Every structure is written in structure tokens, then in C-alpha cells.
Amino acid sequence: xxxxxxxxxxxGGAAAYYLDAYQxxxxxxxxxAANDDFQKYSSKQPYxxxxxSVKVLQHNNELTQQQLDPLVKKYFLAEGxxxxxxxxxxxxxxxxxxxxxxxxxxxxxxxxxxKVPKDYYYGFSRYLSQAPxxxxxxxxxxxxxxxxxMVNILLGAPVNAITHIRRTAEExxxxxxxxxxxxxxxxxxxxxxxxxIYTAYPFEIDFDTTTDPFRKVVEDLMQSPYIFVIRSVSxxxxxxxxxxxxxLDTIASSISxxxxxxxxxxxxxxxxxxxxxxxLFGGEILHVQLRVDLIDWKGLxxxxxxx
Length: 307
Hints:
Blueprint: H1 2-42, H2 51-76, H3 91-112, H4 137-156, E1 161-168, H5 178-182, E2 185-186, E3 191-192, E4 198-209, H6 211-223, E5 227-237, H7 248-255, H8 265-270, E6 286-297
Parallel strand pairs: 1-2
Antiparallel strand pairs: 1-4, 3-4, 4-6, 5-6
């Protein structure tokens, strides 16, 4: 009896030992799993910066601003850019400014032999017989300045003709059918980016030119003290198709000396042509439409106190 009790006691103690060991292993596994979950999800929590890291971040921001400011002043607020100084003016004064600008541009086009529509008002024909409200004069002055700059670039290229200039209707209270009545407007409005850093004023310019002046127009837009961004370019060649081989003899005969009756190579070669060089490619008139934005830059300069 005593032996049996001892054996049963020993067996019972061993069973308790193994039972506790298994529970401990399970518990350790649970702890490890909980630790893994903590590591996994704690890494997804928002980072809360320390006071020291905030100071480092501010210092880096100041260094970045110091590097950006010269670039902003050079490219976005270049010397000669009058946009930051433009504000509302008296309506009569603005009307005089418009008339003077239009007269000057039309006179310059005439001197250079560049065709423009008769009595053209460069997107402002609405104000031939009226003045704008004073609250509209600031945005209209910016649009007028942009058009004057772009037209001067076209005149300086020089292009062959300026056929149309359109702007967005930024005036308050314009009728919905103004675009169809005057043809001065394109659909849409100026766009201000979030934070008011800059405003983009869209324009469309239609003109006729050859290849080299067209290249100069694009280069001069990029070199202007104003920020002009070309959004799209549409080009249509006046010649819908290239010359055919069968037409070359006709082209050659039209420019040779009509008095030459002999067909010997020496006689034909020494004859003086009655016309200048005839280009097979590259001398055609291009009908161009540029969609251009004027960027009115306002922010990200330490001088303005913006960050």
C-alpha cells in the first residue's frame, strides 16, 4: 500500500511537472507573438519628433531656402519683371495705357512689314468704346503686359503675320456669349495653385512664319524676364504635300533663263536664272498656334516672408 501510494505520487508529480512545462512553452510563444505584433504595428505609428530633431529640420529648411532664393530671384523675379508692381489703377488711365500700347504695336508691325488685322486691338476689342471697372484693371494690366511682351517677340523675330491673339476672360460680370461675339477670348480662366505661390494666365497666339523666325520666337520666350510656359504648339504647313519627282522639271524650267534656246550643258549652266533659289523644303510658311501661360510668381522667397 505504501509502495503503491509512493508510485502514484511520483507519477502524479511528473504529470504536474510536464503540464506546467507545456503551459510555460505556450505562454512564451504568446509573449513572442505579442512582441512581434508590437514591433510590427508600432513601426506604423506617426513619428513624433523630438525637440532636437525639430531644430535640425528647421535648420535644413533654412539652408534649402538660402539655396532657393537666388534661383527664384534669377528666374521667377528677374530684373525687368514688372508684374509684382502692378495693381489697380484709374479706369481712364488704364484705357489710355491700352490705346497707347495698341498704337505702338500696330506702328511697329507696319514698320517691319508684318501683317496684322486692321485696327487690331490684341484681345481687348471690348474696350474700344468703354473702360473696365477699376477692380478689373489689375488683372487686365497683367494680361496687357503679357500680350505686349509676346507681340514684341513676334515682331523682333520677325514673323510674317500676326493673325489672332486670345486671352481668358478675367473680368467680372462678362456675358456668356462674349467669346462668340468678339473672338478675343479662350475658354477657361487663370489658375492659382494651392498656397497662392503663383497664378497662370493662359493665352493663344496665331501667327504665320518661316522656320528660323519660329525658332527665334521660342528662344526669346524662354529668355524673357517674364515666365512664359509653352503648353502646346500647333503647326500647319502651307504646302499640304511635298513636291513630286515628276514636278522637278517644271520647277527648274520656271526659274531658268527663258532666252536660252540651246540645250547644251555649258549654255544652260552659264545662263543666269530669272528667279532666286527655289527651296523644295524649309521655305514654306507655317501657320502656328501657341498656347502660352504667363506665370505670375508670388511666393517662396525669403524677401516676401513666405515659406
